[in-house]
Write a structure and sequence with these properties.
The protein is an all-alpha fold. The protein contains ten helices and no strands.
């Protein structure tokens, strides 16, 4: 019996999930997302192929889970209930890892991440009345947030993370 087998099932699952997420983090710092293969991710995480697929359907799903903590404050801000300090913390992290972050905003992961952020925003917006259909309003808010983020990370809109956080929290004005 290995030490991992001695853990309760839910702790084993959490440990496996974290190993896969950490493997993706490491790989994102060494290569572009499009060059990462599921087999390489599985090997780096030191898990079996079937174990990987019990937790994630694809490397895209791993990326989506990895980006959740960073997108959560951005989705809150876009939905009109942002916390400036939470957004600032996410932005500071993205700035520290800006080369990898810029790569994620490009194709192929960029459009997928835009859909993910739009889905998170739509969940937070709920059934609020807007002039646009909720999915369209969320997609527009996600596109705006990611465009601003891309310009900032690319050096086209230099400012401090706190200044950008204040702007992003204030982006959604009007009915809400």
């Amino acid at each position: 019996m290995t030490p991992a087998d001695a853990l309760p099932p839910d702790r084993r699952k959490a440990r496996t999930r974290e190993a896969v997420l950490e493997a993706m983090r490491q790989l994102l710092f060494t290569r572009r997302y499009g060059a990462i293969r599921a087999g390489e991710l599985i090997a780096r995480a030191d898990v079996g192929r079937s174990t990987f697929y019990e937790h994630f359907r694809s490397k895209d799903e791993v990326l989506a889970a990895l980006i959740d903590p960073l997108f959560s404050p951005l989705a809150d801000a876009a939905a009109g209930r942002g916390n400036v300090h939470a957004v600032e913390a996410a932005l500071a992290h993205l700035w520290e890892q800006r080369a990898a972050a810029r790569g994620l905003l490009e194709a192929p992961p960029g459009p997928r991440l835009a859909r993910k952020l739009a889905g998170m925003i739509a969940e937070r917006m709920g059934d609020r009345t807007t002039e646009a259909p909720p999915a369209l309003a969320a997609a527009g808010a996600a596109a705006a947030a990611l465009a601003v983020l891309g310009a900032w990370l690319g050096g086209g809109a230099p400012c401090r993370p706190i200044d950008l956080a204040r702007e992003m929290v204030g982006l959604r004005r009007g009915p809400g």
